[in-house]
Amino acid sequence: MAVSRHLLFAILLPMAAVAADFPPPLLIAHATVIDASGAAPLGDADVLLRDGRIVSVGKALVAPPDTQRIEARGRYLIPGLWDMHVHLLRKGRPEAYFPLLIANGVVGFRDMGGDLGFDEIARLRREIADGSRLGPRFIAPGPLLDGPYPTLPSITRVLRNADDAAQAVLDLQRAGADFLKVYNRLPRDAYFALAATARAHHITFAGHVPLAVSAREASQAGQKSIEHLFNVLFACSSQEDALMREKARALDSTDVDERRQLRAHYLQAVLDSYDPARAQALFALFACNATWQTPTLVQRRAYAFPEQAAPDAALLRYVPHDQRWRFDPGQDARLQGRDAARQTLERRYFDMDRGQIALMRKAGVRFLAGSDAPDGEAVPGFSLHDELAELVAAGLTPMEALQSATRNAGDYFGLGDTGVIAPGARADLVLLDADPRADIRNTRRIDAVILDGRLLQRAALQALLDQAAEAAAGP
User: Fold this and answer.
1) Overall pTM > 0.70
2) Labelling 98: which of 181, 242, 251, 460 has CA 20 to 30 A away?
3) What is the pLDDT of residues 422-451, one digit of tens each?
4) CA-CA distances (angstroms) from residue 94 to 8, 241, 266, 366, 374?
5) Looking at the DSSP assignment, which residues form a beta bridge with residue 446?
6) Where are the alpha helices (DSSP H) in 178-306?
7) Domain that residue 291 falls in
8) Is residue 241 part of a domain?
């Protein structure tokens, strides 16, 4: 798979810029190595790291004299984790949330839209590269691409027609976008013009399935990933076209009661008109076209079960005060006025939507783990572990869930050295106290994180948590 010039530069920059300042070689001794390939783990294995790369993996390795050594007998070594759907490139968020990611073993993320300009994004990357800021690698799209009357105007570039869309692709690629994110109201002609121009200029696009386009058409047009299973269940309905129009009408309505009534009607109709044959054909198409799915079940569950969504006080200490309102379901206008019948319907829809994951898995569709943090009451870093547990509950095996946050990220980007444990791969690793194959929740049991070959043990990880809490507390 071709890798765009901007994307390759964004991922390689941190390693290239600090090549002369790597720590001494590191030997991780006697670990159980889970390389995320799906193969059986390698027990009592050594892993030698040097200059930000894995040098060798094997038994009884001989290391250079200046090598730092960590005894890992009884522990489990996995690739560093990637959260493939977050919103962290917004003002005030890197300071509070980057330390949380590293402390939770999250060494990279794909941002899905923020308000930082390309100059600010480049500055963050330089600071991570020169060591003045400890942080993960990241991929960013720039502004959302939406149609007139956009859902999130402050972080959106509005595209009214095909010409607007073609120009946006050229402008954003030139400015440094790693990929493009499409959103709800993008007009049909603009969407297909964007797809064609992106394909011609070798830049990927991902995001929501706009209301003017079906999930089937999005897959055929080359959309690389669909987020939140957005409109996938509609595409499994025998009444897809009519229900998509009704959903668009609800989005356009300024009357709160009308929006609620329309939503209740189209959700029920989607459930009632579900067609297993259409679903099977759609998922086969996704697999054939390599259309990835990022379900963001943590975010979806928060909407269906708001009473379970708010994090406890121990996690809220890591959320900046001016952002804590986002973690209070009572502040979400979409949740107001729900009666028992509506709540039951929302939960049934969530269960049906989530139920498609096992069917897609059976059809060969591939998944990315993304938590949508800090939206959906998801605290960055911690929320990725929640997402892995949700994916297992939805039908993935623990190994498949682990792959969705490791190896699959590398495959998605077309980078064979990311998300794996093998000679030549990046030295981004997480050492666990327990086996994640036995229980995916064991990804939380972190003993150490290795970032670019730098060992961060428990005291250093606790210091990162303290740094995040201090940043959240403000001046």
Assistant:
1) yes
2) 181
3) 999 999 999 999 999 999 999 999 999 999
4) 22, 41, 38, 29, 12
5) 432
6) 188-200, 215-221, 232-235, 240-252, 256-272, 276-289, 297-304
7) 5-142+224-236+274-473
8) no
Residue 108 domain-assigned (yes or no): yes
The tokens describing 311, both together, are 């994090």
Does residue 314 form part of some domain? Answer: yes
Give the single-character DSSP code of 452.
Answer: T
Mean pLDDT of the chain: 93
Nearest CA among 307, 304, 310 for reference residue 353: 304
For the chain, give the number of residues.
475
The answer to whether residue 160 is domain-embedded is no
CB atoms under 10 Å from CB of 366, counted, come to: 19
Is residue 266 classed as helix, strand or coil in its secondary structure?
helix
Q: Supply the pLDDT for residue 322.
A: 85
Q: Is 455 helix (H, G, I), strand (E, B) or coil?
A: strand
Q: For residues 108 and 102, what is the distance between their CA atoms, to the nearest angstrom?
A: 9
293-301 mean pLDDT? 95
Smallest CA-to-CA distance from 210 within 140, 288, 156 is with 156
Question: Domains in the chain: how many in total?
Answer: 1
pLDDT tens digits along 110-143: 999 999 999 999 999 999 999 999 999 999 998 9
* CA 416-420-422 angle, 5° bins: 90
Residue 328 binned pLDDT confidence (cut-offs 50, 70, 90): confident
DSSP 97: H
CA distances from residue 282 to 31, 73, 147, 214, 322 in whole angstroms, order as listed: 42, 46, 26, 11, 42
Question: How distant is the alpha carbon of residue 283 from its chain centre?
Answer: 21
Task: Kindly provide the residue ranges of all beta strands, DSSP E only, lying in 340-445, ordered along the sequence.
Answer: 429-432
- The string of pLDDT tens digits covering residues 209-250 is 999 999 999 999 999 999 999 999 999 999 999 999 999 999
Residue 119 is inside which H or E element, if any? helix 118-130
* Amino acid (one-letter) located at 315: L
Predicted confidence (pLDDT) at residue 421 exceeds the cutoff of 50: yes
